[in-house]
Structures are given as C-alpha cells and as structure tokens.
C-alpha cells in the first residue's frame, strides 16, 4: 500500500493533473495468475483516473489516423485469440508485452524461449515491453525499461521513447538517473579525490581490488556510510591466498560454508579470519540470491 501511495503521488496523480491521455497494457508482473490476465493490478488500481485506459485484453487504438494493435501479456487463457489476431491483424503496427526468442532480456543475457520472430513478419513495426534491455532486430524493437529495477540493469542506459505517427520514427529520450553504483576500491592508488556523494541514496557495491591499509579502508567505509546509501555490499577478492597452502586431505567436506571456513583456517595470514569468514558467508548468501 505504501508503494501504491507513492506511485500515485509521483506518477499517476501528475498524469491526471496534466490531463494526459494514458493507455496501459497489462504485463506479466501486473497479473496475479500465470494462466489468465483476469486479475491484474492496472484494472484494479487505476480506475479512479478518468484519463487512464487499461488493456487486459487485446484492442485497437487510433492516433492521428494511425491504427495500432495493443496486445497485453499472452498466457494460456488468451493464447489462441492472441496468436490468431497477430496472424490476421487489421493494423501493420503492434505494441505488446511479448516474450520473443533471440532477444536479450538484460544486457549480455539472451532469451531463447518464447515466440518465433516469424510470427510478427506481417507487421511493419513491433514495439514490445517485457525485456529490460533495449534492442532491435528487423521490424521488432524491445523498448527496455525506462529506469533501473535490479542489478541486472546496471550500466545499461534506460529511457523512454516517442513514436511519431506521421513519420513512424521512434525517438529515444535517455534517463540518466541511476539507482546502482559500483565502486572499485584500490588503495594502491590515491583515494583522496573520491566523490562520496555518488553513494547518496543509492544501492552500492564496493569491489575490493587492493586493501593494504585497513585503517584507511575503515575511514573510506565510514565516509560511504555517512552518505546513507539504501543498500551497501562489499565484494572482496581473496586471490592473495595461494591455493597451494590448502591441504585438501584435511578438509571435511560438509557444505560450502564449511569448505570456505576450512580454507580460511588453513591460510597463513595475520588478517582477521573471523572477518574473512563472515565476508565469505555474506558473498555466498548473495550468490545464492542472484536472479
């Protein structure tokens, strides 16, 4: 409810105040069930706004004489109707929320499941949501998300698009605001000119390249914390611990955390081993929760 209140305050209320004509199609994350779009957030939450029109079933709209097919998320309940409409559409433009094989879901991560591109051959223009990364192949363009949502969106330029109904050209308007910051800490170089404000109100990952002076690193982390990041994770490289110091025969193979602890115990180092173990456990838990 807090999220809904905030979304209304900074987005939907402002749309309403400016009398903007807003059309929204249902995507997979709007729908409660996997097999039907009947129960969905946009139909249930946005009916109070007279200028917002929602589409949980396919429909046609016309802007400036340009007819466009709007196609919400395709599931088992609407599969036959949706595919038939795509094959026999009364428009050569479709805006949808599709899962099409061969396009990147995120930057560097390709999707091999979903519809074949051949299903959309009859259209001149296909614009789709769903995948976070912006990409184009032939007549199909994934618009990507307009802002960062997860760490998978890091270092991937976001924004929104303007479609000109006269020229049929698409203009990308970049969003330079970022939620995520990665900082490589390396005290083999001068750390005096760090812009600490970049961490303010962000999700932050500190990747440790070199940390020879623990006291200076603690000062650095204190300054980072003063910027009140939303979330802060430290990713540390333990490559300085040579693998040949580990006696494999003495490791009791129980689980990953115990293996890591045994490894740290076997290393000849003056570092705080409990701190190392805690960091390794944190990284292991982070790895388990990766998307």
Describe the structure.
With 291 residues, this protein is α/β, with parallel strands linked by helices. Helices cover 24% and strands 24% of the residues. It contains six helices and 15 strands.
Strand-pairing-aware structural class? alpha/beta
Instruction: Give the CA-CA distance, first to last residue.
Output: 25 Å
Backbone CA Rg: 25 Å
Helical content stands at 10-25%
Quote the beta fraction: 15-25%
Shape: elongated
Q: Which sequence of strands runs across the widest sheet?
A: 3-4-5-8-10-9
The SSE string, one letter per element, is: HEHEEEHEEEEEEEEEEHEHH
Average of the residue pLDDT scores: 89
Main attributes of the structure:
single chain; alpha/beta; 3-stranded parallel beta sheet; 291 residues; 24% helix; 6-stranded mixed beta sheet
Layout of helices and strands:
Elements: H1 2-17, E1 22-25, H2 41-45, E2 52-55, E3 59-63, E4 66-71, H3 79-87, E5 93-96, E6 104-106, E7 109-110, E8 125-128, E9 135-137, E10 140-142, E11 158-163, E12 170-175, E13 180-186, E14 203-210, H4 214-226, E15 231-236, H5 256-266, H6 273-288
Parallel strand pairs: 1-2, 4-5, 5-8, 8-10, 13-14, 14-15
Antiparallel strand pairs: 3-4, 6-7, 9-10, 11-12
Helix pairs in contact: 5-6
Provide a compact summary of the structure:
With 291 residues, the chain is of the alpha/beta class.
